[in-house]
Amino acid sequence: VGSHNFHNFTTRTKAEDPSARRYILSFTANDVVIVEGIEFVKCEVVGQSFMLHQIRKMMGLAVAIMRNCAPETLITNALQKDININVPTAPEVGLYLDECFFTSYNNKWKDSHEELSMKAYEKEAEDFKMKYIYSHIAMTEHKEGVVALWLHSLNYRNYPDLRAGDKQELTENKCSE
Q1: In angstroms, rounded to a whole number, what is the distance separating the alpha carbons of residues 140 and 123?
Q2: 3 state SS of 121
Q3: What is the DSSP track for 14-31?
Q4: What angle do CA 52, 137, 123 make, to 5 degrees?
Q5: Quick one: pLDDT at residue 176?
Q6: Do the strands 21-35 and 2-5 form a parallel or antiparallel pair, or are they unpaired?
Q7: Rounded to two decimals, what is the model's pTM?
Q8: DSSP string covering 49-106, please?
Q9: Which of 69, 78, 88, 141 is the most exposed, fewest CB within 10 Å of its CB?
Q10: Whole-number pLDDT of residue 170
């Protein structure tokens, strides 16, 4: 959370490039949702703007850490300008734009315009997501197994940079080779 250099979380962007600096307001993991027998963890990333593959790489690193394939310190290392790390890119299945926030607009026009927001439609939006979006994601995973295949590939052979961390974390790391 905050302003950081995300050059390791995209492609073709150098650490010195000002566009690599992005502002993240929050990154939360919500409740587990079971759709068609598959458990999903709903994660929400709120930021001012995102680069190509940034969210997928943020998720890839988070999953690697949660599966003990990488130390938590790798997050800090990956955000450093002077360090280049090959961060795993999570599959695109399941990634979707949920909502746009118009905070600046709403603050600027609050005295003369009604708030631009989806708040009044939260229930309907959630019902729609459950019926159409989540079921499509689950069906795609059942049929293609993209996430399962990616999880199997999440190892040091494919991502040697996941070893980056201090010696104690490396010896405690449980990710299979």
Answers
A1: 25
A2: helix
A3: -TT-GGGEEEEEEEEEEE
A4: 95
A5: 55
A6: antiparallel
A7: 0.87
A8: ---TTHHHHHHHHHHHHHTTSS-THHHHHHT-TT---------STT--------HHHH
A9: 141
A10: 35
- pLDDT at site 164: 73
> 101-107 long-range CB contacts below 8 Å, 24 or more apart?
101/46
Torsion of CA 5, 55, 91, 29, to 10 degrees: 120
Domains of the chain (ranges, CATH numbers): 2-101+118-172 (3.30.70.660)
What local confidence, expressed as pLDDT, does residue 13 receive? 96
Phi and psi, residue 24, nearest 5°? -105, 125
**Mean pLDDT of residues grouped by 10 in the chain (177 residues)?**
97 96 96 93 95 98 96 95 95 94 94 95 96 96 97 94 61 50
DSSP category for residue 133: I
pLDDT of 177 reads 55
Q: What's the pLDDT at 172?
A: 46
What integer pLDDT is reported at residue 168 of this predicted model?
41
Identify the DSSP state of 134. Answer: I
What burial class does residue 163 get, using C-beta atoms within 10 Å of its C-beta: 0-12 exposed, 13-18 middle, 19+ buried?
middle
Comparing CA positions, the residue from 56, 65, 89 lying closest to residue 158 is 89
* Whole-number Å distance between alpha carbons of 174 and 87: 18
